[in-house]
Design brief:
It is a single chain. The protein has about 260 residues and is an alpha/beta fold. The chain has two domains: about 45 residues, no CATH class; about 200 residues, 3-Layer(aba) Sandwich (Rossmann fold), CATH 3.40.50. Helices cover about 40% and strands about 15% of the residues. The chain contains ten helices and seven strands. It has a five-stranded parallel sheet. A two-stranded antiparallel sheet has the order 4-5. Helix 6 packs across helix 8. The termini are far apart. Bound molecules: zinc ion (2 copies). The site of one zinc ion has 8 residues, from helix 2. One zinc ion binds next to helix 2.
Length: about 260
Amino acid sequence: MKKWGANQLKFGFYSLGQVILDLILPPKCLNCDCRVDQAHNICPDCWKKLHFISDPKCRCCGYPFEPDLSLNYHALGESLCGQCQVLSRSFERAASALRYDDESRKMIIGFKHNDRLEYLDYFVKLLRQAGADIFPGVDYIVPVPLHKKRLLHRRYNQSALLSRALSKKLDVDHAPEFLVRTKNTPPQEGNLNKRAVNVRGAFKVGPHYQKLARGKKILLIDDVYTTGATVENCAKAIKKAGAAEVYVLTVFRVISPQNPN
Ligand SMILES: [Zn+2]
Ligand SMILES: [Zn+2]
């Protein structure tokens, strides 16, 4: 009789377990609960309603241009958005996977506030697609930190969940303590200018990474890019510690008419 090794047994039980689990709890779309082939995915109907960010976009902050506007920009030989033309950015480039809109909102709200952590694998897949050309040579993957008081209240930092899972997939060092949030800023709501003031100077590089940051390529992860004020202030702190390059990657991007970038 064939003897099974521990690994084969484990694998055998896992496969059998998975088959039984799929029979009892068939995988469902993360958004609408209809049946899907694979767990942690969305169905084709929900996928069609999402707005993925694609070219043409700003070569610095990744703001997507309307096709007409893009023609104007390219005619002028410019591929920077209005804001990137006037603001100095501490990051080299930002990229996001999805527009934050009515269709995508419930995904992020569920993930952020309702413990719907089953979205994690799907979001990491989106990050890998959106950031593919950024990853080569990255030294550390760093989440935008929560203030420790907020972390106690929320129990988990959704950006750190994303950065940890992405680090594992890419086999790059995860550095959840690279940045420290020194100011407990109010939730990201309300007046945009006020929000920019709130996060000014709210981050610093943690003591362990002060020397390690020098000359490094850092990938900063957040769930949503709203006005860019948060990631700008994080990138500024990272550059101050001597990092060579900072890239930003988020799952969602707010494209707001009142913040037309
Ligand atoms: Zn669906
Ligand atoms: Zn821009």
